[in-house]
Amino acid sequence: MNGGLLVIAHEATRTGSPAVLLRLLTAARDDLPHPISVRLLADGPLADDLRAVATTPSDGTGRPDVVLVNSALAAGELWRLPDDVPAAVYVHEQAIALGELSDDALRALRERAAVVLSVSEATTADLLALGVAADRIRLLPPAVHRPDPTDAGTAAVRRELSVRDDQRLVLGCGVAAWRKGADLFVPTCARLAGRRELVFAWVGQRHRTERRRLDHDTRAAGLDERVRWIGEVDDTSNWLAAADVLLMCSREDPQPLVPFEAAYCGTPTAGFDVGGLVTMGRNGGAVTVPFPDVAGLATAAESLIDDTALARATVDAATALADRHHDLTIVAAEFAAVLNGLAADGRTTE
Amino acid sequence: MTIRRLLAVSHEATLTGAPMNLLHLVRWISEETSTEVHVLILRDGPLRHRFEEVAETTVLDTSPISAALGTVQQGLRHLGSSRAWKPFAELRLRPQLRSLSGFDLVYLNSLGSLSMLPYLPPARHVACHVHELQVALTTQPDDLQDLLRTGPDVWIAASHAVRNMLVDETRLPAERVLLHHEFIDTAPFVNHRPDARRANRMRRELQLHPETAVVMGAGTIDWRKGTELFIQLGTEVRRRTRHPVRFLWVGGDLTGVDAQRLHSDLTRADADHVTFLGTKPEPLDWFELADVFALTSHEDPYPLVCLEHAAMGHPLVTYRNGGMPELLEAAGPEAALGVVDFLDVGALAERTIALLDSETLYQQAAAQLRAHVIAEHDVAVAAPQLYEDLTRLSS
């Protein structure tokens, strides 16, 4: 391709950063530098949708006006491009994930990217600690998808889980791995298991090793009849709407979107006071407790289940935060402005 | 009928539970019976010299060629090859194992040593001592799991938990799965005399106030040992008591990915009262600092470190999983109070604090555990029982 925008994405899974990218590209498509080409470093369920945004195929030749790399994990790809092409990297990671970056990726963040877009203040702090210059970091909170649950879909979820009307669903959501704290979901459920009206489920992919470990813990805690590991689903909307409380057990989550999506479905969130949940907790958009107080997290979940006024207030605060900081129209306009600014620089250099 | 010649196979020679247990057994057999013992070590390590002191010992892959063949074999297995690795295994193992013939009994210590069985010259009988539980077993390659079912004539289970798994889940014949709890040489632990000067120096090094109680954990740093659950316990205890309590973990590599995650958990939890000390050449000196030993493993058949602390007079707390509840419940009612439901960190913290707060409870639990370990888990008591069962098999 010659001119325009080249988008490089590290993967196309149905997880936070690829989903945010797809949302932004779709919303801002007409306002972005053209032509647009998309290069995926790994496939996934969102691959077709991401490629569909492109107006020209990515053939690896030519010189774009600007490059957007989605997520720090792919930042090393910038070294394969001409030095004078301006580039932005959209960083969705934090702490440990940033600490595990390859040397190439780290160097690209420090030396090659003209703009480093950061999803949250927590990520910005970690980028500064890694030596990325403050004047190149721009805060771009991810846009939140407004879920579209249906009564029938929600009822189907509760039926699938055998949740009666007088029962309550406690839900976890995300790739069930260390970073998302799926291991902490089990002891939290164990703490709540004395309440027979509670049903527990986790929606999200589980890789083999993690699956063995979680199944072991679930069984050893005597919860194999109570905790359901659902696996990946096409759309979480009905699951979030069917839940009575969302448990966020993440150790590290710079700007989780699921609590906002859950709030749009009317479901409040309880979680650990880490990453993006710190701001949510401070503003009443989630009930948070210090990490790794699983007993406290269980109590927080109970308070949201038992106190409908608290649950309502938490949901309202979360949706207000989402409207203010994560509205797709506002975020997409900022996104396009950054890339158009860089493209203009690129054309001047050329 | 006696066992004339016995080949003991150890998957490694680290200072960890299964090899240590085997060392105790081999030493006892060599010293107390007429059986000639030969040890085969699959991966060299610091325990090798101690095996060499008590039995003729062969270490696998000491030549560069066999080591290279081993690397290729392992590499192909990791790549998912189901057959391509086998010729390399033949080339590597047959020449090295050819001389190990004429044994009455091959004693495969742990699942990791099972892989040698197809390449060893035939022996009259084969026993496999299983020190593993579900996750460790199911992560073995399918062919090894098959070999576990078909290779041995008899299986030794390291605890009831292991035996239940082998009989109920692996479907091994119950009459040939023998229960022999792990054992240690209790003497060094029972007779260990605290060295006040050394203890003071170590406490100074760790900035431990004389009034600060110490809860200890120990082992490798990985999921199985539940190091993150140890941090959870530390933060829960801190929330529940105003008395100073320090959490010390002895052992483990502090440089890997697991350690990196551990440190991030420590930082996130602001747990500056929890310290991971890494591997120590003289762990016993560090064990001396403990007031209570906490086992937070996700999965642990019957860890020797608990027997060692019990022999030293330290009460134990543990989740109800794996084999350790068997020890506490057999030891006595006060010792058994240290068992709580799996993952109930609040209850584990409560029992830990109760032991630290009540001198009576502390002394009763400690005395029960110490007496039980000396009576049932000392090598002088347990090894003859195991040997007798092995002799019966050979006859």
Write a structural description.
The complex is a heterodimer of chains A (350) and B (395). In chain A, α1 (16-28) packs across α14 (328-349) and α10 crosses α13 (308-325). In chain A, the strands form 2 sheets. In chain A, strands 2-1-3-4-5-6 form a 6-stranded parallel beta sheet. Chain A has a 6-stranded parallel beta sheet with strand order 9-8-7-10-11-12, sandwiched between helices. In chain A, α1 (16-28) links the parallel β1 (5-9) and β2 (36-40). Chain A is α/β, with parallel strands linked by helices and 350 residues long. In chain A, 43% of the residues lie in helices and 16% in strands. Chain A starts with a strand and ends with a helix. Chain A has helices at 16-28, 47-53, 95-99, 103-112, 121-129, 151-160, 182-192, 208-220, 237-242, 258-264, 277-282, 294-306, 308-325, 328-349, and strands spanning 5-9, 36-40, 66-70, 87-91, 115-118, 137-139, 168-173, 198-203, 227-231, 245-248, 269-272, 287-289. By secondary structure, chain B is of the alpha/beta class. Chain B folds into 2 domains: 5-183 and 378-394, Rossmann fold; 187-376, Glycogen Phosphorylase B (Rossmann fold). Chain B is 48% helix and 15% strand. Chain B has 18 helices and 13 strands. Chain B has helices at residues 17-32, 48-54, 64-78, 85-97, 134-138, 142-150, 160-169, 187-190, 196-205, 227-240, 257-268, 283-287, 304-312, 324-331, 333-336, 345-357, 359-376, 379-394; strands spanning 5-10, 36-41, 56-59, 105-109, 125-130, 154-157, 177-179, 213-218, 245-250, 274-278, 292-295, 316-319, 339-340. In chain B, strands 3-2-1-4-5-6-7 form a 7-stranded parallel beta sheet. In chain B, α3 (64-78) runs antiparallel to α4. The radius of gyration of chain B is 22 Å and the shape is globular. Chain B starts with a strand and ends with a helix. The mean pLDDT of chain B is 95. The A-B interface holds A 95-96, 99-100, 178, 183, 186-187, 190-191, 209, 212-213, 216-217, 220-222, 251-252, 274, 290-295 and B 134-135, 138-139, 223, 228, 231-232, 235-236, 239, 260-261, 264-265, 268-270, 298-299, 319, 321, 341-346.
